Every structure is written in C-alpha cells, then in structure tokens.
C-alpha cells in the first residue's frame, strides 16, 4: 500500500484562474474561498480567478495561495485521500500544518495574509534580490558566497538548483562570482524582496505576535519543517519554527529526502503549477508523483489513489 505525502507549493506558483473550477464544482471549496473573502475583507474570487496585478504582490499572493491550496486539499479529503505526512515550500508550510491538523484553515489563511504584509514591507523596494543558481552543488554555492557579506542561501530546492538571497548589489556580485566558479546559469528572480534572508529577521519577530493570536492544535500526522528538513510531531515546536522560517533557508531537498527515507513512495502536489514535482524528479526517480491543480486532476488522483 502506498505511503502518501501531500506537498504544497510556495510563492511564484500562483496563476490567474487557480481554484476557479473547484469553486464551480465543490460546495466545500466555495465555503473556504467565500469565508476567506469575508474574514480578510478581500474579494478572493476576483483575486484568484481573474487576471490582476495584486495576485503577484506578496501581501496578497500568500493568502490567495493558501486559500486555493486548502480548498483543493479539502476536496481530496472528501474523496477519502489521506496523507501520512505533509510538507510545504515556504508559505506552503502553513498549508502543510493545517493539513496535519495543527492549525484551522481560516487561521492559516489569516496568518499568511499578515505574514505577506510583513514580508512586503520588511525591506525597502529595490534593495533586496534573489537569484536561482543552476548547475552547482550546494557546497559549491556555499563556498562561492562565503566571502560576500549580505548574501546567503534562501532555498536548497533540488540537486542543481539553489536560490540565493540578500542585498541587491551583493546578489549581483555573487552571480558573477558563481558563474566564474562554474555555475551554468544564475537567474534573477522576479520577487519583491530578499525572502528567507537574515534581512527579514525583524519581520519574523513581528510574526510571532501574529502567531500568538492563533490557537494551535495537536498534530494528527507529522509535517516536515523547512527550517531543518525534519519531521515535526509536537505542535509546541511550530510557532518558533515559523518565526525562524521567515528568515532562514528552506531545506526542501532535505525535506523530501527525509520523507523518502521514512517510506513515502507517493507524493501529491496540491496547488497550481508543477514546481515541486519538477524538484522531486531531480531528487529521486524512484517515487511516484501526482499533481492536483485542476478539478480534472483531482478526480484522476482520487480514482488512482482512493
């Protein structure tokens, strides 16, 4: 019998129209999206379903992504598809915690709305940057940026793809150094700030006040934290981990490797895009991966795994 993990994407996967077919087909999805609209005083249908600039602005993106991903997740639950463990990339970790029973869905949505605002305004516009380094090992990237103050690793995504973050000028300097050291490409990312950088530590401190207002519940299943790549079974650890996560590197490759080591052989990516599925193929070809970003895909996965 398959050992299943749910995994949830982070910022950058959002697309106009995401979740619309779930809203049209499922009362459960409608309730989640409508309640989020009411709680946040945002028109989630307009934000998620129509072409608009706000969808790509951090302070709106995060709430939109968690709302849609959790609507999709609940539809899978109704089909009796249950994971053994969950994980999410960056803001996707909030979905993972909610899916594991540690947080109510609407509180997770509210928390990332606040988190998005804090991250959007943590560093003045244009001062920070991120870049994807392709074709280098993690230790080579670490060594290449070691002498450049203000630059650090944001994401260990998969073999051959590491993301760096920090002050804009220093990230540009690091790009030159890494290309000279053998990187195949260094691609600037279209983001509004230096995410998962020590520059956001103050935002993390402010996030603690937000998380203090949330009622965390005992986990029904474990989730994997970005901060270490390890399983979390005690909800009392979660608040501190989420505070750290906002300024710490995302150990995604290590997270996936740990799930595989613990027997997971089937991964279900829930949300728009196929980013995590792409990473998974580079981490291991020995496991099976499904994507659920459309109603049709949800029905196919439900038929295949339930």
Quote the beta fraction.
15-25%
Number of strands: 10
Order of helices and strands: EHHHHEHHEHEEHEHEEHHEHEH
Taking pLDDT < 50 over at least 5 consecutive residues as the criterion, the unreliable ranges are none
Q: What is the CA-based Rg, rounded? A: 18 Å
Helical residue percent?
40-55%
Taking the alpha carbons of the first and last residues, their distance comes to: 11 Å
> pLDDT average, as an integer?
96
Major β-sheet strand ordering: 8-7-2-1-9-10
Number of helical segments with 4 or more residues: 13
Counting helices, strands and paired strands, the structural category is alpha/beta
> How would you sum up the major sheet?
6 strands, mixed
Morphology call: globular
Summarize this structure as a short list of keywords or feature phrases.
six-stranded mixed beta sheet, 306 residues, 13 helices, globular, alpha/beta, four-stranded antiparallel beta sheet, single chain, 16% strand
Could you please describe the fold and organization of this structure?
The protein has 306 residues and is an alpha/beta fold. It is 46% helix and 16% strand. The chain contains 13 helices and ten strands. A six-stranded mixed sheet has the order 8-7-2-1-9-10, with helices on both faces. Helix 4 runs antiparallel to helix 6. The longest helix is centred in the N-terminal third of the chain and has 21 residues. The N and C termini lie close together (11 Å).
């Amino acid at each position: 019998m398959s050992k299943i993990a749910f995994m949830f994407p982070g910022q950058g996967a959002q697309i106009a129209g995401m979740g619309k077919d779930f809203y049209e087909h499922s009362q459960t999805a409608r309730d989640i999206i409508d309640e989020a609209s009411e709680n946040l005083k945002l028109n989630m249908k307009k934000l998620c379903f129509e072409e608009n600039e706000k969808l790509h602005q951090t302070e709106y993106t995060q709430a939109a992504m968690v709302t849609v991903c959790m609507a999709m997740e609940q539809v899978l639950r109704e089909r009796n598809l249950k994971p053994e463990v969950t994980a999410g990339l960056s803001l996707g970790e909030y979905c993972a915690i909610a899916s594991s029973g540690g947080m109510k869905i609407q509180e997770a949505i509210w928390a990332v709305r606040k988190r998005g605002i804090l991250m959007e305004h943590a560093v003045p516009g244009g001062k920070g940057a991120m870049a994807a380094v392709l074709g280098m090992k993690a230790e080579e990237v670490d060594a290449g940026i070691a002498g450049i103050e203000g630059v650090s690793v944001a994401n260990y995504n998969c073999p051959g793809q590491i993301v760096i973050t920090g002050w804009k000028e220093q990230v540009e300097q690091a790009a030159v150094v890494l290309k000279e050291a053998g990187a195949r490409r260094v691609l600037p990312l279209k983001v509004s700030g230096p995410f998962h950088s020590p520059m956001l530590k103050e935002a993390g401190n402010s996030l603690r006040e937000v998380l203090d207002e949330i009622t965390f519940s005992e986990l029904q299943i474990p989730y994997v934290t970005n901060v270490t790549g390890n399983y979390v079974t005690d909800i009392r650890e979660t608040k501190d981990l989420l505070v750290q996560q906002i300024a710490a590197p995302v150990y995604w490759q290590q997270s996936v490797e740990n799930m595989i080591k613990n027997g997971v052989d089937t991964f279900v990516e829930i949300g728009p895009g196929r980013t995590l599925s792409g990473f998974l193929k580079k981490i291991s070809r020995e496991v099976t991966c499904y994507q659920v970003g459309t109603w049709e895909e949800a029905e196919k996965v439900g038929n295949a795994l339930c």
